[in-house]
Design a protein that fits this description.
Largest sheet of chain B: none
Order of helices and strands of chain A: HHHEEEEEEH
Largest sheet of chain A: 5 strands, mixed, barrel
Radius of gyration of chain A: 23 Å
Shape of chain B: globular
Number of helices of chain B: 8
Helix content of chain B: over 70%
Strand content of chain B: under 5%
Distance between the termini of chain B: 35 Å
Structural class of chain A: alpha+beta
Distance between the termini of chain A: 66 Å
Shape of chain A: flat
Oligomer: heterodimer
Radius of gyration of chain B: 19 Å
Number of helices of chain A: 4
Strand content of chain A: 25-35%
Chain lengths: 142, 236
């Protein structure tokens, strides 16, 4: 059914395809540090060569009951449920920033447990539901 | 089904078929817009900006899907040299490009009130921009390279390379930390979108598929005519 030419072309394609996929895989693997948009508190904790002068982003959940506003400065804790980092920030906060929700902070580490942010982004999760459903869910959880 | 895309079938495609499709599109668009703008509830945290999703998600799906078709057809095209493949791809590309642009713009409009920023260079957003560039490159090759066979070869290779970007877009949110949220729809698990929001999303998805089909059929018919005309000229 297939001509000889078509067969050799298929072979060529399969080889090229696989080798190209492998190249992309290894490039992405080696660039992983640049592809990742933010580090979790555990990443920060486990990393030995983290620089304190570089601007980095850390992300996770805002720990419940951790938001503490004093005058212009807002302090809160970012957690990934294993490790925590205290974040200090002064400036505009996005509307969706709230306790128990995802957040990404951009700034510099003071040490492995303390972060000074100069930008805060709210991270939305993949759940979408009307307010009534959320209410019902919360009630049934309590 | 494939036979329906043969040139003779397409050329004999009556304008009535297309106007029937347009009629159907008008109805389903009305229903879709009513559902997404009026009948569906606001989100518990995003409020009304969740409605942007009803345009954003289907556009992204279609932009990725069309490029997938172009890439696959390009492989078939280069291996088996089927004449109609390049014409199909050529007619599909601008539709995909428009949806990629819509996806990026609506995403940006949603990002500002939700994340607090219009744009970030995380893996999902960046790979989507790369898709946009692949579309632009693909279309430009057809415009710039005058010889059909040459343009066909170069554009096919671009489309095949671009094919590798598609799984990266789809899984970027799972492989790396991104600002963009993970997918709410997947084949293996239940959707994390409440059904009152899933209905308008699915309707809008059909709206855009039918819209794409109409534009594609019109463009494809034109491309076939152009191709035949050029061939005649070359023979003379």
């Amino acid at each position: 059914m297939l001509g000889k030419k078509a067969k050799s072309r298929i072979l060529l394609f399969v080889t090229l395809f696989i080798s190209f996929a492998l190249v992309i895989f290894f490039v992405l693997r080696s660039l992983e540090e640049n592809v990742v948009y933010f580090l979790s508190p555990s990443d920060v904790y486990n990393k030995s060569d983290i620089s304190l002068n570089e601007t980095i982003r850390i992300g996770g959940l805002v720990k419940i009951n951790s938001i503490n506003e004093k005058e212009e400065v807002i302090n809160f804790i970012i957690t990934d449920l294993k490790n925590e980092i205290v974040v200090s920030y002064s400036g505009l906060i996005p509307n969706l920033f709230s306790e128990g929700k995802g957040v990404i902070a951009e700034g510099k580490l003071k040490d492995k447990k303390y972060f000074i942010a100069d930008k805060i982004l709210a991270k939305h999760d993949e759940n979408y539901m009307p307010p009534e459903v959320k209410k019902a869910l919360d009630q049934s959880n309590n | 089904m494939f036979k329906n895309f043969f040139p003779s079938k397409i050329l004999s495609l009556k304008n009535k078929t297309i106007s029937n499709l347009v009629f159907f599109l008008t109805i389903i668009t009305t229903i879709g817009l009513f559902y997404s703008l009026v009948a569906s509830p606001p989100d518990y945290i995003q409020g009304d900006s969740v409605r942007i999703m009803y345009v954003h998600v289907p556009s992204s799906f279609i932009a990725i899907g069309i490029f997938g078709i172009i890439g696959m057809s390009s492989i078939i095209n280069l291996v088996f040299k089927i004449k109609i493949m390049p014409l199909i791809c050529k007619s599909l590309a601008p539709v995909g490009l428009v949806f990629a642009v819509i996806s990026i713009i609506t995403g940006s409009l949603w990002g500002k009130p939700t994340w607090g920023i219009w744009w970030v260079w995380d893996a999902r957003l960046t790979s989507m921009v790369i898709l946009l560039f692949f579309y632009i490159a693909y279309i430009l090759i057809w415009k710039v390279v005058k010889k059909f066979e040459e343009a066909n070869k170069i554009s096919s290779i671009i489309a095949i390379i671009g094919l590798f970007n598609l799984p990266i877009i789809r899984y970027s949110v799972d492989w790396w930390n991104t600002l963009h949220q993970p997918s709410s729809l997947s084949l293996t698990s239940a959707p994390t979108i409440h059904y009152t929001m899933l209905i308008p999303l699915i309707i809008m998805f059909f709206v855009m598929i039918i819209f794409s089909l109409i534009i594609f059929l019109m463009r494809y018919k034109t491309e076939i005519m152009k191709f035949k005309l050029n061939n005649k000229k070359n023979i003379k």
